[in-house]
Amino acid sequence: MGALMSLQKVSYTYPGNQHPDLEDISLEVQEGQFVLVAGLSGSGKSTLLRIMAGLIPRFYGGDLQGEIELLGKRLAEWSHRELSSRVGLLFQDPESQLVTTRVDQELLFGMENIGYDRPLMHARLQEVTGALTMQPWLKQPTLHLSGGWKQKTLLASIIMVRPRLLLLDEPLSQLDAASVDQLLDYLEQCRRLWGISIVVAEHRLDKLSQRADTIWYLHQGSMQTRSWAEISSLTYPGAWQAATPSVGGSNGGRVAGLAKVEFQYPHSNQPVLKECSLDLQAGEITCLMGANGAGKTTLLKLLIGTIKPLKGQVDVLGEDPSRLSAASLARKIGYLSQEPGDYLYSPTVREEIQFTCRSLKLDDHSRTNELLEQLHLQPLAQRNPRDLSWGERQRVALASILVAQPPVLLLDEPTRGLDNKLKAELGYILRQLANQGTSILVATHDENLANSWADRIMYLHDGILLEKESSQYPGEEWIGHG
User: Fold this and answer.
1) Which of 2, 161, 240, 302 is most exposed, with minimal Cβ within 10 Å?
2) pLDDT band at residue 1, thresholds of 50, 70 and 90?
């Protein structure tokens, strides 16, 4: 194997920052190699992938130092069109990469843009969609896809171009267990058949450690040599149980829910939700699980009133959420979507949190400082939220919601982009909120979160809402309808 890409003494500083975000990075990617990039949230993993994809400084600005070569040629000398056929990058936020309005069009877009002939394009379409079992989704509008299916669609569109180097930023973060195994098997096939080199930045190390040829560990912007045992220890895989409090949430009565709700998207031939009923109790954490595309995000959107049921009723504190003003709804229910960028508009992290107080005419009472400390955001208080890592932006968006202290809290994949230590601390914060009477509903694929922190676990399957005993893993001993 030869070196496909090399970085020598590479350092990078984002615009406006005083200190380098990556410093003195030297590494090589070999032909056909599988590399895992590990590190805590905010360590520089996403920045490294952007540099390797040629996006920095071309699209992000800032100061880039050092030498970077792809196939023996300086990366800066490749045109954007040339790079797009040789290097593919999957971002953490699939919304930012979607171009077309339908799945099959999205899959073909990259090949069309480069100029592949139509017979080859359709042959690749059959091959990739067959391997990833995507055929039933080809005519679906991309707007209505779940976060996991958006991620899967974009990855398939990149693989169809068959780049020499595939860069994946948290590709497992929104996938259910079956999809994770399927994706990793296909990536192994890409390596074996076509010699594609793969670099994956990921927090779910257990899924990748047996497949990676080498592991790079980033710490505060510097590359460090660590053994697998050290990396496992540093990423806190045991933090869930160690931090689990002994006191559970207390049931304080129903505050929101659905009653015999049915929902179907326009132009779809089957309902997403069928006769779904769910009572959310004050002081209780409920985890909502299910395969990609099962309808978890749809259920949350019904509760915040952005979509309306075809049948049945939805209420929050006795009122129809779709009839409430934005300000009235924000006082009753807090919603963190899968896209934290949707919430971030202020020039600094501190101002982002304080904006909620001003908008809702709430007294701060030092709540901003408390949240900055709780969510480890104090060192970032004066940074622009959009310059932060995905996990950091996720925490800023969460703080901007929690500062309003809503009685009902809805979180859609909140552990995405968080390392295990931060996941454990998030679970502890949620438990504290529940103990204070907040009703919390979390849509997640994270079994650790569900089994360590939830009072109740619900599962969506084929449009039906099921409840299971919390001691069992999803898929086992479902005990009835919600």
Assistant:
1) 2
2) low
pLDDT single digits (tens) 327-357: 899 999 999 998 887 778 899 999 999 999 9
* CA Rg value for the chain: 23
Predicted pLDDT at 335: 95
Strands of the 273-281 sheet, one edge to the other? 273-281, 254-263, 311-316
Whole-number pLDDT of residue 246? 39
| Cα 176 to Cα 149, 273, 444, 445, distances in angstroms | 10, 19, 9, 6
Buried b (16+ CB within 10 A) or exposed e, 65-85: ebebbbeeeebeebeeeebbb
* Identity at 395, one-letter amino acid code: R
- 3-state secondary structure (DSSP) of residue 210: coil
pLDDT score for 454: 93
Gap between the Cα atoms of 304 and 301, Å rounded: 5
In the block, which residue shows the tokens 């960028």?
A: 341
**Percent of the chain whose predicted confidence (pLDDT) is above 70:** 93
Query: What is the edge-to-edge ordering of all strands in the sheet holding 63-70?
Result: 22-30, 3-13, 63-70, 73-74
Nearest-angstrom CA–CA distance, 482 and 479: 9
Q: What token pair was written down for 441?
A: 């509903």
